[in-house]
Amino acid sequence: MADQFDLECRNVVKKFDDFTAVDDISLAIPKGSFFSILGPSGCGKTTLLRMLAGFQAPTSGDILIKGSSVLGVPPNRRPVNMVFQHLALFPMMNVAENVAYGLKRRGVNKATITQKVSETLARVGLPDSGPKQISQLSGGQKQRIAIARCLVLDPAVLLLDEPLGALDLKLREHMKVELKQLQHEIGTTFVYITHDQSEALVMSDQVAVMNAGGFEQVGAPQDLYYNPQTAFVAGFVGESNRWHGVVGGGNDHQVEINLAAGGMVVAKRDANAALKDGQAVDVFVRPEVIAIDGKGAVDNTLSAKVENVLFNGAASSLQVRETTTGHEMTVALPQTGAFASVKAGDNINLSWSFEQTRCFAASDGGATA
What is the CATH number of domain 239-361? Predict the structure, then answer.
């Protein structure tokens, strides 16, 4: 059954002298899927990608493509191709010549090259672009040509190293949808490296969240968002309000957390988080689960003063300060019109369910809310 996976890593480690850049990574990517590796700068994701491509060798472990180990196989002999952030298209060649480049290097005959280039340009939605110069293309078209140049070589896996990073914001948003659709249509397995959670969540079938050389959690985007398994994932994927506190009691379903800033919240007791009374914890509550003026569950309630209204259409939010402790929070502002008159200086009541409150044993690092 090994061939059901286009790409596998088995206990892959990469050390540079005393520094471990990739620490015992194992993964199995099913055929035809869009798999993203998401993590902050310096977490090891690019090192991992370079090992998959063959530019670096693992210190230990194995990498398999289509069920066969590729250890010792040079990059040009592996059934993988790579799309870089800066695309590296040849400006002195037209589109067709760019796409044909890899086939020419392989010594493929001219008639086959012409046919394969034509087919591949059609696959990426640019069937009539062959004679065009690279300078005549838009940013999104250049992206498609860079992908076509790889696809024409029929790779088992396409590796993409932050390919949208050089695009402006509006084009990047557009290309997220385009890339997802393109991958779905052509069926080639994509392995996508990014530090941008929005890219990973929007496009991927599965996402591996990487931190300090290892995978914190691997799952569908919805699973990572709604069921984070570690404090790092809870803080890195999506927006969250974050508190520090200690466990003050509870029952089989709930944990009472005495916050360091003062006050108390009730959180869901996760089966995989064995928390003891007195233990230091990080608590996370997403801005969109907090109801304004008592319209929701009342396991957790507090009063706050609005400091800023950040209007951004459907993504609008309030920055508020809790009345008794002075703790700052972000609350999503529903665009139903009910809160259209909310302004800085207003006093509001906030509430949310214990089930929407996640807590984990305190981590040493990570961003605070």
Answer: 2.40.50.100
